[in-house]
Amino acid sequence: MGIAESRSPPVHFSLSEISQAYRMGEEVVPVLKRVTFTVRRGETCALLGTSGSGKSTLLNIVGLLDRPDSGQYHFNDRNMLTADADELALIRNRQFGFVFQAFNLLPRLTALDNVALPLMYRGIGRRCARDAASEQLHRVGLADRAEHRPAELSGGQRQRVAIARALVGQPSVILADEPTGNLDTATADDIVTLLLALNQEHGVTLVVVTHDVALANRFSRKLEVRSGELYESLL
Ligand SMILES: Nc1ncnc2c1ncn2[C@@H]1O[C@H](COP(=O)(O)OP(=O)(O)O)[C@@H](O)[C@H]1O
Ligand SMILES: [Mg+2]
Hints:
Elements (H helix, E strand, L loop, with lengths): L2 H5 L3 E14 L2 E14 L3 E5 L6 H8 L7 E6 L2 E2 L5 H11 E5 L10 H11 L4 H14 L15 H13 L5 E5 L7 H18 L2 E5 L3 H4 L4 E6 L2 E4 L3
Parallel strand pairs: 3-8, 3-9, 6-7, 7-8
Antiparallel strand pairs: 1-2, 1-4, 4-5, 9-10
């Protein structure tokens, strides 16, 4: 092993020749064509590409929400395409935190209960789940909004709650699908600052879909889906 290699963090996950197509009636529409890339622990990746290019499709495969038609996917050296449904669910729940453009918070629950919910689904008691949720809200700077419902929060605050919810299960990767798509420029910048701070402080690997080249430039890597292929971008 060379010096450069020995200094690199270990591989977190790797995709090799991943292909995915959707059937539209008679027609088969290829979306991803032999996509290959490796992400090391603690890397921050921006995923770029025009609308409909396949960014969400790729993110869903990485996050084990979808299985590709073909290719290889290893996560922590385990083969994800031969794992059974139970193992996939376990890895998905323990290793990944998901953040979406539309926040996807439950409107009737307070910020605290929204963040506690993933732990309650795991069978962790309410008290313990709420303590952990409180800690995460603190981490995203929203300790004083714990009892607010989503409608009583700004867009940026809602996305912070969603990030706290993604973090509460202590994932090793955060996958964020256009997390700043509903936010103004300044708030979008703050959300990216928060995600990068979480990466710096806790080493969580980031894969973040964005249309915004200025935001993308703040990440250590820029990947772009174009015509179904993935390019490492030097924008
Ligand atoms: N479940 C699906 N069934 C059929 N076509 C789909 C499905 N999901 C996505 N597509 C198509 O695949 C392409 C890529 O979609 P998507 O991954 O959502 O793109 P992006 O996130 O980059 O906007 C689009 O043409 C979209 O219409
Ligand atoms: Mg999308």
